[in-house]
């Protein structure tokens, strides 16, 4: 099974890119982030014509997550991250896809830090860690996947000295991610490539893509049942060079 994650940075603006990539790579399951569209504006018909069932949690202008599945049953489990009934940002969606529980997530950016947005990000990590603990106690294998808005180590960021005060690299956020992983999750891409530079995001500014000045902020965390099932993974870097593309690249893994 091939599972992918892709922060599309506006699903309607990037729809031709998304459909081209789906046709080229044929992933079985896809988690999308930053739809930037309310539910009624999601291009459901185009995605279905590409061969995918889909569920989504949209929001006007901002956020938004979706899970796509090809030739697999998909059943929604949870919409919105538990732990704060007043948080209505569309950043979290869980579904049973075949025999897997897939949680698609889009962590807050948190800038400027310190400040209210950074505090919200840390609270979100606390809630995610709590939910992740509950998921680990289930018998169902789980994949926590999406845009975590964190570079876990210096290897995950171009020129880390320039990012010390950024909300994506501050020690509080890296510690929050570390604590999450240490519950028993496997960072799939880093397991496959323990010492390699792999970036999943390239800013639109300062010619970042051509300079290979990127960040690794899109991650797959696998529950213990899936650790030995991981056989391959990588990024579709060429997609970042396509016309009118997202600032993220698709990231994927294969499970046997």
Automatic annotation (TrEMBL):
Domain Endonuclease/exonuclease/phosphatase: 4-248
Classification via Gene3D superfamilies: Endonuclease/exonuclease/phosphatase
EC number: 3.1.11.2
Cofactor(s) it depends on: Mg(2+)
Top-rank taxon, per record: Bacteria
GO MF, one example: double-stranded DNA 3'-5' DNA exonuclease activity
PROSITE patterns the UniProt entry points to: AP_NUCLEASE_F1_1, AP_NUCLEASE_F1_4
InterPro entries, per database record: AP_endonuc_1, AP_endonuclease_F1_BS, Endo/exonu/phosph_ase_sf, Endo/exonuclease/phosphatase, ExoIII-like
Keywords: Hydrolase, Magnesium, Metal-binding
A family per Pfam: Exo_endo_phos
Family designation: Belongs to the DNA repair enzymes AP/ExoA family.
Protein name, UniProt field: Exodeoxyribonuclease III
């Amino acid at each position: 099974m091939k599972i992918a994650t892709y922060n599309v940075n506006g699903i309607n603006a990037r729809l031709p890119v998304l459909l081209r990539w789906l046709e080229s790579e044929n992933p079985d399951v896809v988690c999308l982030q930053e739809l930037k569209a309310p539910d009624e504006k999601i291009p459901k018909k185009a995605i279905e014509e590409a061969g995918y069932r889909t569920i989504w949690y949209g929001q006007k202008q901002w956020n938004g997550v979706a899970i796509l599945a090809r030739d697999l049953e998909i059943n929604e489990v949870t919409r919105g991250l538990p732990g704060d009934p007043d948080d209505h940002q569309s950043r979290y969606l869980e579904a049973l896809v075949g025999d897997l529980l897939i949680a698609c997530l889009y962590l807050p950016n948190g800038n400027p830090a310190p400040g209210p947005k950074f505090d919200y990000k840390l609270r979100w990590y606390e809630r995610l860690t709590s939910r992740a603990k509950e998921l680990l106690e289930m018998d169902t294998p789980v994949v926590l996947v999406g845009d975590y808005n964190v570079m876990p180590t210096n290897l995950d960021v171009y020129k880390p000295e320039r990012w010390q005060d950024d909300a994506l690299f501050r020690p509080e956020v890296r510690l929050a991610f570390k604590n999450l992983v240490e519950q028993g999750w496997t960072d799939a891409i880093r397991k496959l490539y323990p010492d390699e530079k792999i970036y999943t995001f390239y800013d639109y500014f300062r010619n970042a893509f051509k300079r290979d000045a990127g960040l690794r902020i899109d991650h797959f965390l696998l529950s213990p049942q899936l650790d030995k099932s991981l056989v391959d993974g990588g990024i579709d870097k060429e997609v970042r060079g396509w016309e009118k593309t997202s600032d993220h690249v698709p990231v994927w893994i294969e499970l046997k």
